Amino acid sequence: MSMCIASIGHYLPKKIVTNDDLLQKVASYSGETTNIADMKKKLTLNVAKQRHFISKDENGIIMAEEAVKRCLENGSINVLDIDLILYVSMYRAYVEPAMSIHIRDAIGAKNSNAFDISNACMGFLNAKELAYMYLETNRYNNILIVSSEVCSELIPWDMFGDSNDNTGFSSLTIADGAVAMVLTKGGDKRNFKLFDMNTYSEHKDVCKIRIGKEKNDLKLMVHSRQLAAIALDIMKEFIPDFVYKAEEYFNGVDIIFIHQVTGNLKRFCGNLREDLYKKVHYSFPTVGNTGSASIPLGMALAEKEGLLKRGDRVVTIVGASGFSCGATAFIY
After folding, report:
1. CA-based, 20 to 30 A from 40: which of 112, 136, 139, 292?
2. How far apart are CA 235 and CA 244, in angstroms?
3. Secondary structure of the chain in the HEC alphabet?
4. What pLDDT, on a 0 to 100 scale, did the predictor assign at position 158?
């Protein structure tokens, strides 16, 4: 059995936020101890230019509904043929019932089962592996994966003072967006045979969003320098090792998508050959870090730009808080 991507659809909020917009809000909330000039320099070095935030008339479910609508239209797929919905975002408007239940109702997927998966930015990749196993056992036939990230609601705007080491620059890279993907049987027989996943739970406290009733709960609290050091140490070996494995398996690689938290990605790629590094697709400068939506959103944008085509040999790689990392490869 093989699995293929039948269709992708995405939605980006109407509101575009620039670096200056961000820093103005930080200055108004964090007070005189915040070094705005230093933060502006970091944003520039990080190759961040803009990102999308939801407006007052938008929310996570509305974004998800629009992304699913476009996904089904792009693949000429009937919503009644969807038999499983997996929601994978960090963002949740509801703890109960599951967000997937709300999305099922919103899109009218009356013949589907639905549940959520929670694993930070790794959620979409985890869902792909689960979908592969479900399709292989004939449990389901058309699986819809949805990510709708409203990361802007997680930014601790009043905690960027110089004396505060509990939140960091990284939270200013996150942004909003939604993406939907339908997976079904078929495609190249080699598809999704390569999955590689690792978890390093000793780093669980470096980046977290805590549920509770304290002031800073439900905000992204991240030790940015420590997280960057951990990611660098792990990903500089993981990325080239997996890409070379995929290159050998498929006799070449056409395009690479790496979960992007920075535009300066090269230092995380270790000894990846220059010709392969040039195949990495960048969406970060214009859409920021969209959490679990990052990889499929990058694919949707690349397809729109004509950079991702059917038949391309694709590698996708994710690093996530926890710390976790994972990758898969397939023919699109």
Report:
1. 292
2. 14
3. CCEEEEEEEEECCCEEEEHHHHHHHHHHHHCCCCCHHHHHHHHHHCCCCEEEECCCCCCHHHHHHHHHHHHHHHCCCCHHHCCEEEECCCCCCCCCCCHHHHHHHHHCCCCCEEEECCCHHHHHHHHHHHHHHHHHCCCCCEEEEEEEEEHHHHCCCCCCCCCCCCCCHHHHHECEEEEEEEEEECCCCCCCCEEEEEECHHHCCCEEECCCCCCCCCCEEECHHHHHHHHHHHHHHHHHHHHHHHHHHHCCCCEEEECCCCCCCHHHHCCCCHHHHCCECCCHHHHCECHHHHHHHHHHHHHHCCCCCCCCEEEEEEEECCCEEEEEEEEC
4. 85
Identify the CATH number of the domain defined by range 194-331. Answer: 3.40.47.10
The fold of 3-185 is Peroxisomal Thiolase; Chain A, domain 1 (3.40.47)
Residues 6+ apart with CB under 8 A from 74: 7, 8, 9
Beta bridge partners of 183: 5, 143
Q: Considering just the CA atoms, what is the radius of gyration of the chain in Å?
A: 19
- Kindly tell me if the per-residue pLDDT of 164 is higher than 60: no
Q: Report how far residue 247's alpha carbon sits from residue 295's, in angstroms, rounded to the nearest whole number.
A: 19
As annotated, the residues of the chain forming the CATH 3.40.47.10 domain(s) are: 3-185, 194-331
Alpha-carbon dihedral of residues 52, 56, 59, 65, nearest 10 degrees? -90
pLDDT tens, residue by residue, 191-243: 999 999 999 999 999 999 999 888 888 899 898 889 989 999 999 999 999 99
Residue 168 C-alpha from the chain's centroid: 20
Q: Which residue has the tokens 């509770």?
A: 212
